[in-house]
Amino acid sequence: DETSFVTNYLASLSSLPVRYHADFVPPTWTKSRAASKTPSVPRPKTVEKVKQQGTSRKDAGQQIQVKVKRLKGGQIYTIDMPSSSTVLELKGKLYPLSSVSPANQRLILKGKALHDTKPLYEYDVGDANVIHLVVKSSAQSVDVTSEREDGSRKSSLDKMKSDAFWNSLRAFLGEQFANSDDVERVYNVFKKGSKELVNDE
Prior knowledge:
By secondary structure, the chain is α+β, with helices and mostly antiparallel strands. Helices cover 53% and strands 14% of the residues. Among the domains are: 56-135, Ubiquitin-like (UB roll), CATH 3.10.20; 148-200, GTP Cyclohydrolase I, Chain A, domain 1 (Orthogonal Bundle), CATH 1.10.286. Helix 6 runs antiparallel to helix 7. The termini are far apart.
């Protein structure tokens, strides 16, 4: 049968190796097809990334309650402000509550120091988080010095209220002045000045 013969003949030809002459040049249409590439298609953003970006934009306009705990002393300060506020703005609101200037504040969340220019929502600051306030050493030394000065001043004023102090002062003036009237005059000046000093406090 002719059909079977042709089919078998073509099958036998396809199994034979193809040989080209040394000067063989492939047709141009085969080159263009090989050189063409499938255009790259940009990969779509993952659902998770799109969701995170949407959450960041949404959180940026929210009003949040920020809790700040002072590391030394344990005082807790609560501040309501937009999540788009910067860390520096938070320090400004902390100043009247903690009496620590923004320059001497160091805010830490989850072991990471917060940068002044960053918005709060980038650190996921929210109602469930507590920021720790660390007072820089220079500010602490000023506070300690001020407390010592106040304590020393209070101790001096307490001494001036005791009878023993005034008796000692009268005895001292008696050694310095021969005239008893001069002693009383100077003594009364001291006495009057001490009352004004105590009243000012």
